[in-house]
DNA sequence: AAAGTGACGAGAGAATGTTGCAGGAATCCC
DNA sequence: GGGATTCCTGCAACATTCTCTCGTCACTTT
């Protein structure tokens, strides 16, 4: 009873503080203070401040990658990919604070963070890129442009979670319920459809000329 | 001779380190070490670590706001607004590292940073929103949707400068010359045109029905 | 009763931001 | 030329804060 409670309290507190103040901006004292537990408990449960971060990372990424891998094994259809997009947005929204934190920390040249995420990120990129490519296989988009579009696609997956602090109030309205995930992933999907369609058209035109 | 050199060296070093490691992640000793100057020189020139940050902020934002104010006084035309968009992207790209830093730091709940930026941000929002609204005045887009689109617009202005560390290599290719600024602002402008056009069409359709 | 576990308090050891002081080297002013 | 000023260095000290470890206590389990 007691352990689950305190350990979870530490995790919650650190999650929130990392989100608002960043990893370097929060001390273990801050965390312990917010969780209302003793400072040494953090070392006890997670060994380090870094160990705590690592624990949170694994807990966050493990189900996420699982989700991706599940869809990587399904039959390749556009609908399946579109469904995955919505599920990704849903997952990120569900763990909104930590998602923000991860994306922000990824813009830093932090060896520690990157080292513990590199396998997850590689898997994510591999799976997403494969599905992305197969979805656009019908329209003959070439190599360099495909990569650029993929970059743009990944940008769309993270943009809502990199909003500045002073814009969040308005954004939180959208984040409040499941409405946002649906709407926003629809935006991405619409962009996708538009992409396929417009390229087909320009392809046809070139054929005529 | 000497003073300009060392002061500038400190500014360069701190700019780079804030960019890669964040404000809290860099110590004054790191900065002094990288600039190859004495630690006490930072206090000498800028009083504080915070003073150094403040100095950099002012130096970055002053010309930026000046640019915005210049265009706020011009006659209201779509072309003028489009031109401003490209100039903004150009400015941000020119000061790429510090732009990234500012955008990242804005996602934090950092009182110090926010306090010294609040006036700049207010001015920026005021001017941009006015121009944005006037540009979309022709098409009858309503209040709430207008604000949502404005949010999206501001998101587009900062997305390229929030790229994760491991995606930058590919991005730097685009950032290498003036090509990027032109291309990317064209992307925004096209989105804008599409916005006006599609809304006009749906408006007409409703009229017919 | 013994062993194990979760929690606490104190504190060591290191890092950080900041300040102070003695001096060197260049520049400016008379 | 000589003195004053300015810019910079080097070293040291300071208080503060940080992370992390240690010994101990209370409670539970065996």
UniProtKB/TrEMBL annotation, chains A, B:
**Tagged with keyword DNA-binding:** yes
Instruction: Pinpoint the HTH tetR-type domain residues.
Output: 4-64
**Entry's Gene Ontology molecular function annotations:** DNA binding
Q: Residue ranges of the DNA-binding region?
A: 27-46
InterPro entries from the UniProt entry: Homeodomain-like_sf, HTH-type_Tx_Regulator, HTH_TetR
Q: Which organism is it from?
A: Pontibacillus marinus BH030004 = DSM 16465
Tell me yes or no: is Acetylation among this UniProt entry's keywords.
Answer: no
Which protein is depicted?
Answer: TetR family transcriptional regulator
The UniProt keyword set, sorted, is:
DNA-binding, Repressor
Q: Name one Pfam family in it.
A: TetR_N
* Gene3D superfamilies assigned to the protein according to its UniProt record, in alphabetical order: Tetracycline Repressor, domain 2 (1.10.357.10)
| Origin superkingdom | Bacteria
């Amino acid at each position: 009873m007691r352990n689950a409670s305190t350990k979870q309290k530490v995790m919650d507190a650190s999650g929130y503080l990392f989100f608002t103040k960043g990893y370097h901006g929060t001390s273990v004292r801050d965390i312990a203070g917010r969780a209302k537990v003793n400072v040494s408990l953090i070392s006890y449960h997670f060994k380090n401040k870094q160990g705590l971060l690592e624990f949170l990372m694994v807990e966050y990424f493990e189900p996420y990658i699982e989700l991706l891998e599940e869809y990587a094994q399904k039959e390749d259809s556009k609908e399946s990919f579109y469904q995955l997009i919505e599920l990704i947005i849903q997952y990120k929204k569900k763990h909104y604070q930590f998602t923000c934190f991860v994306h922000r920390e990824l813009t830093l040249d932090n060896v520690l963070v990157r080292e513990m995420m590199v396998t997850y990120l590689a898997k994510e990129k591999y799976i997403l890129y494969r599905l992305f490519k197969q979805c656009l296989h019908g329209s003959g988009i070439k190599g360099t442009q495909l990569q650029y579009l993929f970059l743009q696609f990944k940008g769309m997956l993270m943009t809502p979670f990199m909003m500045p602090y002073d814009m969040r109030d308005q954004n939180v309205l959208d984040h409040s319920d499941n409405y946002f995930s649906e709407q926003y992933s629809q935006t991405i999907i619409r962009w996708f459809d538009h992409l396929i369609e417009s390229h087909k058209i320009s392809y046809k035109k070139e054929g005529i000329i």
